[in-house]
Amino acid sequence: MKYAVIFALGLVFGNAASALERTPAPEGAEVYIVEPEDGAQVKSPVTVVFGLKGMGVAPAGVDKEGTGHHHLIVDAPLPPMNEGIPADENHIHFGGGQTETTVELEPGEHTLQMILGDKNHVPHEPPVTSDRITITVVE
């Protein structure tokens, strides 16, 4: 009996965690990478400047309609859209509302992509993502 209750609670909380409510994105909202340009050869550290149209930037935790905050994805695919965006070396959060960053990258080819997250780091509905660009870091 005890294990059945624990299992049932796991299902309830597990389903709740995997079905996060997604914040609506305004029609036509766009996030993009201002620099570097796709195909650029750059030296490390690399400055990445974020762009946003049709929405505003607000820090994580701030519940204001039509806003979100940036996440930079480095050398990884987009995360699942119905979960919180991971926070690791490939998914860099800018919950303070930052609009640019400098990242250390090893020499070689790298991909960069932006995704906007809501107050809880969850992608909007529909998701607001940039094109994935490829850069080459030279020594």
Describe the overall structure.
The protein has one helix and nine strands, in the order αβββββββββ. The protein is elongated and about 45 Å long. It has one helix spanning 2-18, and strands at 30-35, 41-43, 46-53, 56-57, 67-74, 91-93, 100-103, 108-117, 133-138. Strands 2, 4, 5, 6, 8 and 9 form a six-stranded mixed beta sheet that branches. A three-stranded antiparallel beta sheet has the order 1-3-7, with no helix packed on it. Mean pLDDT is 89; it is low at 1-18. Helix content is 12%, strand content 36%. The chain has 139 residues and is mainly beta. The protein has a single domain, classed as Sandwich (Immunoglobulin-like). Residues 48-137 form the DUF4399 domain. Residues 1-19 form the signal peptide. Keywords: Signal.
Distance between the termini: 63 Å
Low-confidence stretches: 1-18
CATH architecture: Sandwich
Helical residue percent?
Answer: 10-25%
The number of strands is 9
Topology:
Blueprint (H helix, E strand, L loop, with lengths): L1 H17 L11 E6 L5 E3 L2 E8 L2 E2 L9 E8 L16 E3 L6 E4 L4 E10 L15 E6 L1
Parallel strand pairs: 2-9, 4-5
Antiparallel strand pairs: 1-3, 3-7, 5-6, 5-8, 8-9
